[in-house]
Amino acid sequence: MATKSTGGTEKTKSTEVKKKLNVLIVDDDPLNRRLHEMIIKTIGGISQTAKNGEEAVILHRGGASFDLILMDKEMPERDGVSTTKKLREMKVTSMIVGVTSLADQEEERKAFMEAGLNHCLEKPLTKAKILPLINHLVGA
Amino acid sequence: MNTTVVAQLQRQFQDYIVSLYQQGFLDNQFSELRKLQDEGTPDFVSEVVSLFFDDCSKLIDTMSRSLERPDNVDFKQVDSGVHQLKGSSSSVGARRVKNVCISFKECCHVQNREGCLRCLQQVDYEYKMLKTKLQDLFNLEQQILQAGGTIPQVDIN
Lengths: 140, 157
Known about the structure:
By secondary structure, chain A is α/β, with parallel strands linked by helices. Chain A has helices at about 30-45, 55-60, 80-90, 105-115, 125-140, and strands spanning about 5, 10, 15-20, 20-25, 45-50, 70, 95-100, 120. Chain A contains five helices and eight strands; from the N terminus they run E-E-E-E-H-E-H-E-H-E-H-E-H. The longest helix of chain A has 14 residues, at about 30-45. The relative contact order of chain B is 0.18. Chain B contains six helices and no strands.
């Protein structure tokens, strides 16, 4: 079951609503989900998590949309490559960032990118790795 | 607040955490975890570390069963377990565990059961050692807080 962490919109001094970055974390490892959740929180975003690619697809079928999707590669039920392809077929335009491990071969990484990723980052994720992409996304 | 006691505990904490890095138990990723922790989430590091140790226990158990019978080892399954363990250990900065996993993967690739068994034993030893060390570290943190002090930020670099 996908889970959502706290967050929302906040009003600036001019009463203009400032939208928080809305992120979907797709990873079968609870440790990585917690870590990535925390990184997004410290950057000022809000996140939802999905335990595998199939959950991510179901979320989108239900009308959910996100600014950014952090997509693990190796997952049961539906892996990162298949999920990315499916989401792009569903016309999902979110920034999708693949999260790979050092052990992944170049061809595997290439196949992941070709599935429809915008970027690929290597584990472990850190604030420093993800911040440039977030800044690009919010146009900072 | 007894400032002398707090100062002593803080020094002890700093020395201990530096020693964990110097002895190779931890790497920079652990520092990254500590940076993410704040007043609102004071248990973040211990929570993540606890998830890691749960992972270790389950994966070691699964791999042990896979390696049990000499004539029927599923090296693909063992490799998958090692891959997950390597990923988890990278995520928390468990350097020694991660390094054993690198050797472990090589043994899986060449289907060396004896090598795998040695690595399994080593990874079990390393994660349990780290668990004890980190428990001591968290206990020191608690002592500092109970004495009215704050946890020092330690710059490892």
